[in-house]
Amino acid sequence: MKSRQLGQKRGPLPVVRLVGDASGIVIDGKLDDPYWQNCPSAATGRLRELQTGGAPVFGTTFKVGWQGNSVIFGIRCNESTGDVPLPAGEFLRQPHPENRPISASARDDDPATWYGDAVEILIATESHSYYQIAITPAGHVADLDRALPRDQWFAWDSKAEVATNIADDHWTVEIRLPVTEDENDPLHQILGRKPTQSLPWFVNICRQCIRPSGAEYSAFSPTGTASFHEPLKFAYFYDGRSHQFDFDPEVTDFALQFRAATEQRKAEPFLALAAGRVTDFQKSAALEQAVRYDIAAAPTVIEKIPIEAVKKAAHMRYLLAISRPGEVIARYAEEDFMSWPFWKRGDGYHARGRAYFMTKSGEKAERDLLAALQWTSEPRTRDAILLLLAQNREQNLHNDEAALAAYRAIIDSRQKVGGADEYAALQGAARILSRRGFFDEALRILNRAEPEKLQGTWRERIMKSISEIERAKETSTRP
C-alpha cells in the first residue's frame, strides 16, 4: 500500500494533522466543546475557491480531531462577510437576507442533496480510496464509497453521527466517523488505521454554496478544476509531528499556475492560462487579471471575457484606471448588481463606489461601498473598501464620527499593522482625533506604525503626521 501511494505523482498539497486526543466532544453541531475552542492550529484549515485558489465570498473553516476509533470534524460555513460600519458609528452584523443556506435534501442519501448547500468530506485512507460524505444544513447525510461500481456507491454506510446548527450569520457541522480495521464488513464504516506520517490518509474538505443568483465552490485543497473529485489533489492527513512531504514540481494545475502568475504580476502568464483548456470561470478570472497588468491592451482583452459580470467589472476598473469615473457612472449608474452572480457583486459595487467617490457624490458612494462590503470577504480588498468608505465620509460627507468608525474597522482588530491601507487608516483616524482635540490618542494610534522601524515613503508620511499633531497639541488651548 505504501509503495502504491508513493508511486502516485502529486504536486504541492496542503497538510492537516492530528494533535492530541479529542476527548469530551458532544456531537450537537455547536462546536463549543473545549477541544474545539483550544484546537491546535495544525488541526485546522480554511477553504479556498475551487478552480483558482482565491478567496471565496463566504469563507469556511474546519477543525479535526481523533477520539477512540473515530475521526471527528467540526466545520463552520460563514454566511456573512464580516462587520459593516454604519454611518452612526454602529456595525451591521446581520448577513444580507439572501444569505441563508439552502437545504435541498429531505432525507439521508437524497440525490437532491447536491441541488442545495452542502459540505463534503472526501477521504482516502491508507487502505481504501475513496469515501465521500456530504452533509446538508438540515443534517442529512449522503455517504458514498466511490471505489465501488457507480450503481453501488450508495450501498456503503459510514455510520456517521452528525449534527448541524444554523445561526444568523453561519451554519456549522459536527460529524463523528467511526473507523475500523475489520475488512469483513466493507459496506459499513471507514476502513483503515489511524493515519501516520509514513502511511497518511488523503482528505479534502469541500463546500458548495448555492444561491438563486449563482453558486460558489471551495475546498481545503483547490483542485484547479470544476470538480471536487480529484483524488491526487487531496491534502495530506496524519497523526504526528510536523513534516514536509516531497512533491513532484512537474505536477501542476490551473490553481497552482494562477497563483504563480499572480506572483509574477504580469499580463503574459494570465493570457497564457486563458488560452489553455479551461472553464469559462477560469478564463474570465485569468483575463480579468491580465487587464490589471496591461492597461494598453485592456479593451481587446476585456472583450474576450466570457462571463458578462466579470467583463463588466473589468471594464469599470479599466475606466477608473484611466481616470474616467464619469464614464463609469454614465455606463453603470443603473446597473443592477443584485442580478449578477453573488460572487461578483462586491467588485461591481466597489468599482461604482470608487467612481462616485471620485466625482464627489458622497451619498451614492456610501451606499455602494456599504453594499460592496456585504459581498466581499478577501481581507485586503475589504481594507481597500473600508479605507475608501472612511475617506468618502471624511472628505465628501464631512462626517468625522462615521469616518473614524470606518478607519478603526481597519486597524482596531490588528495586533500589528503593516500594509499601505492600514498605514493610511492610522493617519486618517489620527487626523480626526487631532481635529477633535484628542492629541494623545492620535499620537498613540500613529505610533502603532512603529515609525522608527519604517523606511521610505511611509516613514516620511507617518513622521510628518506625528510632527503636525505635536505642533497642534502645543498650540491648542485644550486643557
Q: In terms of topology, how is this protein built?
A:
Elements lengths: L1 H6 L7 E4 L15 H4 L6 E3 L1 E2 L10 E8 L2 E9 L5 E2 L5 E2 L25 E7 L4 E7 L5 E5 L15 E6 L3 E11 L9 E2 L9 E11 L2 E6 L15 E5 L14 H11 L2 H8 L5 H14 L4 H5 L5 H14 L3 H8 L9 H17 L3 H13 L4 H17 L4 H12 L8 H16 L3 H9 L8 H20 L4
Parallel strand pairs: 1-16, 12-13
Antiparallel strand pairs: 2-4, 3-15, 4-5, 5-12, 6-7, 8-9, 8-14, 9-10, 11-12, 14-15, 14-16
Helix pairs in contact: 3-4, 4-5, 5-7, 7-9, 8-9, 9-10, 10-11, 11-12, 11-13, 12-13, 13-14, 13-15, 14-15
Q: Return the CATH class of the largest domain.
A: Mainly Beta
Give the second-level CATH assignment, the architecture of the largest domain: Sandwich
How does the major sheet shape up? 8 strands, mixed
Mean pLDDT over all positions: 94
Global geometry: globular
Sheet/helix structural class: alpha+beta
Range of helix content: 25-40%
Strand content: 15-25%
Low-confidence stretches: none
CATH topology of the largest domain: Immunoglobulin-like
Give the termini distance in whole angstroms.
78 Å
- Compute the gyration radius: what is it? 25 Å
List how many beta strands DSSP finds. 16
- Number of H- or I-type helical stretches: 15
Number of domains: 2
